[in-house]
Amino acid sequence: EEDAALLAGLDAGFEDDDEAGLDPVLAIVGRPNVGKSTLVNRILGRREAVVEDTPGVTRDRVMYPAEWNGRNFTLVDTGGWEFDAKGIHQRVAEQAELAVELADAVLFVVDATVGVTAMDESMMKMLRRTKKPIILVGNKADDQRTDSDVATLWGLGLGEPWAVSAQHGRGVADLLDRIMEVLPEFSEVETTDRRGGPRRVALIGRPNVGKSSLLNKLAGSNRVVVDPLAGTTRDPVDEFIELGDRTWRFVDTAGIRRRQHMAQGADFYASLRTQAALEKAEVAVVLLAVDEVLSEQDVRILQLAIESGRALVLAFNKWDLLDDERRRYLEREIEQDLAHVEWAPRVNISAKTGWHKDRLVPALDTALESWDKRIPTGRLNAFLGELVAAHPHPLRGGKQPRILFGTQASSRPPKFVLFTTGFLDPGYRRFITRRLRETFGFEGTPIEVSMRVRE
Ligand code: GDP
Ligand code: GDP
């Protein structure tokens, strides 16, 4: 009950107004004991003092609404995350990586009195890969004597190190001014990989399921000739087709149209092409033919699509060839072999006659909408609070792992992170995933639920 109340109330300070955009996110990372939590408390100032009145609550939180000079931002505190001694470097770097994924900018905190340690180095390696702004903080610079220690941090190659004493507040205002300079007005975490333009579709399936026929049927007179280059004979790799009043980009169609007759390694190339198409696409249409038994190759291609994290639509082609016996068999196949993708919209079509070809666009729209979807943190935690109250995690050895907080770390596809006090049983995680789908939809997109455990 207490947990439910906590989860429901936890998010009161966050504003998830889509119109205005989400507050920019600042993550504080660094190895244990450099003073991250102290710095978080310092930045939150008075607001945090209120939270501290409730013992235990403070340490349980991960994301905090913060403010400086009238600007709101969200602070991600990685301070309380626990690590086991085994593989600690790896774990620390992983945690930091998650924080960076969530963030628009990163504060990398180093203990200036200790200097750069091996663990700082492991984090650095990861941080160097991100394009997001990183601000280097030399903490515990309590007085001027430590400033020379801070200056040695220039050597890290992360730009100017900021001398700060989280404990005494020294340098914190300057640091916050700097943070405001690098943070965008609204969070851009959502939109960084949005490339715009027509939505990109990969039409995939084993040879002879009818990809080329479907493409022809869809294109018909709707083919959009984009930017024709005079005098070139080069095949366009992608095809632009107008469907439902919008232009869609079918990626890598050249491979579909140019029928390859390769005796050897055909499977390998087909699989490579499928993966390349998926890589470029936002949504996959996996074509299956109803006149033949679902083959191993069909299943493999489907698996590639699922693993690619793209939105997914299943299209059952050659419906004109379906007879009653085959229909019964197909239903069984769907139940048995496709149970793990019951979340994908299914359309029955005939590429040959064009039957139901207009059903494809609504299915694509549904899948892409789910793929793009973002559940506001407040709603997610209200959902988790209710769920946990009604169905607590089963006791395990007298202990009960608790969910402290959840957030949707990213979309396209949606990925959720739950911060917990212990490992959740796989069954319980599946239960949460199922309820997420029941509550929020997500038809046509894979979703991922992961945990961050605080022991
Ligand atoms: P975290 O594990 O990175 O979150 O580190 P904590 O915030 O828990 O701090 C670790 C220790 O360093 C605590 O004992 C803090 O009191 C101490 N500490 C944090 N900031 C400062 C600082 O600016 N100066 C000094 N002298 N000690 C600090
Ligand atoms: P691809 O290898 O996946 O591109 O498949 P094709 O489009 O070349 O189709 C393979 C064969 O299936 C061809 O003989 C098509 O005419 C046939 N075919 C494709 N779609 C249908 C359909 O909906 N109904 C029927 N009866 N045949 C189809």
Could you characterize what this model shows?
The chain contains 16 helices and 16 strands. With about 450 residues, it is an alpha/beta fold. A 7-stranded mixed beta sheet has the order 8-9-10-7-11-12-13, sandwiched between helices. A 6-stranded mixed beta sheet has the order 2-3-1-4-5-6, with helices on both faces. It has a 3-stranded mixed beta sheet with strand order 14-15-16, with helices on both faces. β4, α6 and β5 (about 135-140) form a beta-alpha-beta unit. The longest helix has 15 residues, at about 90-100. It starts with a helix and ends with a strand. One guanosine-5'-diphosphate binds near residues 208 and 350. One guanosine-5'-diphosphate binds near residues 211, 256, 320 and 352.
How many strand elements? Answer: 16
Strand content: 15-25%
- Stretches where pLDDT is under 50 for at least 5 consecutive residues are 5-20, 47-61, 190-195, 226-235
The first-to-last residue Cα distance is 21 Å
Any ligands, ions or cofactors bound here, and which? guanosine-5'-diphosphate
- Our count of helices gives 16
Mean pLDDT: 82
Radius of gyration: 26 Å
Label the overall shape. Answer: elongated
Give, in spatial order, the strands making up the sheet with the most strands. 8-9-10-7-11-12-13
**Coarse structural class:** alpha/beta
Percent helix range: 25-40%
Main sheet?
A: 7 strands, mixed
